[in-house]
Amino acid sequence: MKKVLHLFSNDNNFGDSGSAAGIEFLFNKFGGNKFNFENYFIANNDLTPEIIRRINTEKDFVIVGGGGLFRKPKFFKLIFSLSESSLKKIKKPIIIYGVGVNYENGRDKELSDIKKQLFKLKKYVSLFYVRDLYTQNILNELQIENKLAPCPSLFLEPAEIKILSGSNKKRVGIILAPFTRVKTKVFNSYVETLVSFLAAFKNEYDFYLINHCRVVDRSYLKLFKILDIPLLYSADHHQLMARYCAMDYVIGSRGHMPIFATGANKPFLNISYNVKCDAFVNLLGYPADLNFDIKSLKAEKMKEKFKNMLSIEDELKSVLFSKKEEFFQYNKQVVNEILCKAR
Fold first, then answer.
1. What is the pTM for the complete model shown?
2. What is the phi/psi pair of residue 82, to 5°?
3. How many C-alpha atoms does 21 have within 13 Å on its Cβ side?
4. What are phi and psi of 15, to 5 degrees?
5. Distance (Å, rounded) from C-alpha 268 to C-alpha 257?
6. Fold: same for 2-155+325-342 and 170-311
7. Residues 229, 174: contact at Cβ < 8 Å?
8. What is the helix (H) or strand (E) element at residue 175, kind and residue range?
9. Domain limits of the chain?
10. Does domain 2-155+325-342 have CATH number 1.10.10?
11. Can you tell me the distance from the alpha carbon of 315 to that of 24, in angstroms, rounded to the nearest whole number?
12. What is the DSSP string of 262-321?
């Protein structure tokens, strides 16, 4: 039996914690009794000497998984808050699983820093499995061997909770961009556009705000003060998937929004503020007309795109269903490959 230590760093963002849970689910499903799988929540800390000792004496390999971890490095860290000096001390294979590039639209200068980070990281990583084609193309450019492993949060089971009751109107979930990740002027315009859009359709649909984090972002509070829309709080990633499953459609501005929407088979509009928002949508082959930048968001255009989405609802559901199965097979292959290499 192979002993695995799985490092993950974010238990506030349910997209990232869902990625970590998805990795564990896949290893349990396809690895069965071949793996002893231990999760280790590293938060914003570097590895301690004791954890490094445990890895080198008790584990067969390390998995670093979940989220947009390829981002502009801080304080000379290569991934999470792991320093190069700590990575040098790990004597067992390190595997990157389901990770992608992460930087805000328009901040292209950060990409050069991310590439330098990746170039250094490749010295310590045995296998790179990345979550989207955009990240894969960057690694290919750097001549870093890699394979595709679409985000495992796709495969989360929804929690068994009572979601909603009330009218027979169709339900639309709204997922907002993080307040701190968008410039104030752009964010204020974004909120104004959403208010106009929601007002135009409020008699036809029931709208719900869906938070993606344990701590509700200020963006929700800002919109919540303007419009009377229920805020559906989730306590974990399984509850978040249940929120998506309860909707008929989703409109959102987070990297994991299209991933959860695909997992729940719900047509969506993608309002992008970060390259990661576009990356999964492009991997899906989702219609470009239903994907637009937060800086160019206009109410009339949004209304038009929403109607376009409704007109091809069945086609979109078919695409999402088939892609989820395709991505499941990708991940099954990844786990089996890791198992073979670990023998």
1. 0.93
2. -85, 125
3. 20
4. -65, -45
5. 9
6. yes
7. yes
8. strand 170-175
9. 2-155+325-342, 170-311
10. no
11. 32
12. HHHT--EEEEESBHHHHHHHHHHT--GGGEEEGGG--HHHHHHHHHHHHHTHHHHHHHHH
Q: Quick one: how far is CA 91 from the chain centroid?
A: 29
Q: What is the largest CA-CA distance in the chain?
A: 63
H-helix or E-strand spanning residue 237: helix 237-246
Left (φ > 0), alpha (ψ -120 to 50) or beta: where does 133 sit?
Answer: alpha
User: CB neighbours of 59 closer than 8 A, spacing ≥ 6?
Assistant: 3, 4, 5, 38, 92
Per-residue model confidence as pLDDT tens digits over 34-83? 788 888 887 777 889 999 999 999 999 999 886 656 666 554 455 667 88
Closest to 13 measured CA to CA, from 182, 229, 254, 184: 254
- For the record, the structure tokens of 13 come out as 């963002």
8 Å CB contact between 208 and 173: yes
Q: What is the CATH number of domain 170-311?
A: 3.40.50.2000
pLDDT in tens, 218-270: 888 888 788 888 999 999 999 999 999 999 999 999 889 999 999 999 999 99
Residue type (1 letter), 332:
K
- Distance, first Cα to last Cα, the chain: 9
Task: Give the number of other CB atoms < 10 A from CB of residue 44.
Answer: 10
Residue type, 8: F
